[in-house]
Amino acid sequence: LLSMVESVTSSAVKTAxxxxxxxIVVLAETGETAxxxxxxxxxxxxxxxSQNHHICNVIEGYLCNALSVYTELxxxxxxxxxxxxxxxxxxxxxxxxxxxxxxxxxxxxxGIKEWTMRMLTVSSSPTxxxxxxPTEVFEASSKRAxxxxxxxxx
Length: 154
Fold this sequence. Notes:
The protein is of the alpha/beta class. It has five helices and five strands. The chain has a five-stranded mixed sheet, with helices on both faces.
């Protein structure tokens, strides 16, 4: 069996391959998701966006077919996706109108991490992708402690 993160990264690689996505953009906190994406050898390059210089250095130093993007921009407003898109366009990996797979986590109201994989169209619009996670929701949910157990819904 694969772990949850391995399953999601495997699915992201397959989706990118099936859809002919030009890249896989991952919003990285620890670099683990980027590492697992690389494990599945995607044809599309991996663009990892992080607020941590060390994580960016590790990604570029140890992962094949990966580019890291350091940003100081706040998380949760689409800034990291736009930073990944700008870096990918600058590197010549894709252009406006191309499809990419974006993989990231959000925290629900109970503070539990949930995985999100999206297929997005590259855009230069400064307001594009602002609906990924409103800042207020990110800040509020990251402060909440998990309550109760999480089970499957019927």
